[in-house]
């Protein structure tokens, strides 16, 4: 169950990061509200996952999911650069996440 909590926490991290971008510096109410609610959910779920998982593994996987998800959504939603080198390094982070899960 802890890996489910951790994955969900990572998804909520992606949502709060994207909604924070849409909040335009917390000047727009709806995206600001979404940011606050999903950030809270992300932290709560991360805490639940850490009850069973090692700190370093849980934190690395949580941030890795957030990094990969926000980087890809930045490319799709905000037209950020999708250079081959950038995509390679995003892929390496993804490989690291998978490796941590497999080695646990």
From TrEMBL:
Its main location: membrane. The keyword Cell membrane applies. The keyword Transmembrane helix applies. SUPFAM superfamilies: Multidrug resistance efflux transporter EmrE. It is a multi-pass membrane protein. Keywords: Cell membrane, Membrane, Transmembrane, Transmembrane helix, Transport. The chain crosses the membrane at residues 33-50, 57-78, 84-102. It is found in: Cell membrane. It comes from the Bacteria. InterPro entries: EmrE-like, Small_drug/metabolite_transptr, Small_multidrug_res. Belongs to the drug/metabolite transporter (DMT) superfamily. Small multidrug resistance (SMR) (TC 2.A.7.1) family. Gdx/SugE subfamily. This is Guanidinium exporter. It comes from Thiobacter aerophilum. The lineage of its organism: Bacteria, Pseudomonadati, Pseudomonadota, Betaproteobacteria, Burkholderiales.
């Amino acid at each position: 169950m802890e890996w489910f909590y951790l994955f969900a926490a990572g998804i909520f991290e992606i949502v709060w990061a994207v909604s924070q971008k849409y909040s335009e510096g917390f000047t727009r109410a709806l995206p600001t509200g979404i940011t606050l609610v999903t950030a809270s959910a992300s932290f709560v779920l991360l805490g639940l996952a850490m009850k069973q998982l090692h700190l370093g593994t849980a934190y690395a996987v949580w941030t890795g999911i957030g990094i990969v998800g926000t980087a890809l959504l930045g490319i799709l939603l905000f037209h950020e650069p999708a250079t081959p080198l950038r995509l390679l390094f995003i892929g390496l982070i993804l490989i690291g996440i998978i490796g941590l899960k497999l080695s646990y």
